[in-house]
Amino acid sequence: MRIAVTGGSGKLGTWVVEELLRQGYQVVSLDERRSDKIHCKQLKVDLSDLGQVVGGLSGADAVLHLAAIPAPLGYPDSYIFANNVLSTYNVLDAAAMLGIRNVVAGSSESVFGFAWAPKRFDPLYFPIDENHPVLPREIYGLSKEVGERTGEMFARRTGMQVTFLRYSTIVAPAEYERLNVREPERYKHTMWSYIDIRDAVQASLAALRSEAGGYHALNVTSDDTLSDRPTEELLDRFYPAVKDRRRTFAGREAVVGNALAKSVLGWQPAHSWQRV
User: Fold this and answer.
1) Nearest to 164 by CA among 122, 133, 210
2) Count of Cβ atoms closer than 10 Å to residue 262 Cβ
3) Could you tell me which InterPro entries the record lists for this protein (predicted)?
4) What residue spans define the domains of the chain?
5) CA triplet 69, 220, 86: central angle to 5 degrees?
């Protein structure tokens, strides 16, 4: 198979490209810049230009769309929204034109709205699963919601398989030593959620191999929290107003659930900050 990866020179893209090549896939990276860290065909593509995207995706069997501004930082809101939404639309539209039947796209847990909200608010219930309403209150989360809705429309209209992966905070092995799991207030607004980059890679590949069909938006998170405290203790301390706990959390069990991704993709996270 030939896989087109947008954002192949990015943090996750670099790891994904390396693993795809290791497993024998043909890979082409579509990005605004070239990278000496990946060793595949690289095309410099402006994803805001549909014609360039069609040309770049031509010949691909599946697409992994990872290119995006990854946080509401460093750019004006209007630019973040336009970049993320238009690039996603163009990738889906180009795939539909070319008859590509499988598109996997990077979304974010920020779509729920808690991580970057200028005025903080609580979840409706715990654990946070894919049925929890998405309630973004800033532009980055909104751009992810619009991207997901766009993917759902294309799946419905064309019958292609579209999977949006709501990656949690992606952590590479070398970054663990800089994280302070003994300060739970630091990660309160992300619900102490994270995903090891190696597990994010495997979830991405599992989605590319999946034959689930239709549209899916899936939480991609670790099984545990980015904290040394028991989860029940964290919720009691930081979210006492949320009375709807739909089960008891064992030990340091993750607050953002990944059961649906496990079921749909046959994927299982294998790494933790406790065993790098």
Assistant:
1) 210
2) 17
3) Epimerase_deHydtase, NAD(P)-bd_dom_sf
4) 2-173+194-224+255-265
5) 30
The identity of residue 82, as a single letter, is A
Tokens of 74: 């460093």
CA–CA–CA angle 165, 167, 173 (5° rounding): 135
The domain 2-173+194-224+255-265: what is its CATH number? 3.40.50.720
DSSP assignment of 80-143, as one string? HHHHHHHHHHHHHHHHHHHT--EEEEEEEGGGGSTTT-SS----SSBSB-TTSPP---SHHHHH
| Distance in angstroms (rounded) separating the CA atoms of residues 43 and 127 | 41
Strands of the chain, DSSP E: 2-6, 26-31, 41-44, 62-65, 102-108, 161-167, 170-171, 195-196, 215-220
**Do 150 and 89 contact (CB within 8 A), yes or no?**
yes
**pLDDT in tens for each of the 276 residues of the chain?**
999 999 999 999 999 999 999 999 999 999 999 999 999 999 999 999 999 999 999 999 999 999 999 999 999 999 999 999 999 999 999 999 999 999 999 999 999 999 999 999 999 999 999 999 999 999 999 999 999 999 999 999 999 999 999 999 999 999 999 999 999 999 999 999 999 999 999 999 999 999 999 999 999 999 999 999 999 999 999 999 999 999 999 999 999 999 999 999 999 999 999 986
Is this structure's pTM higher than 0.90?
yes
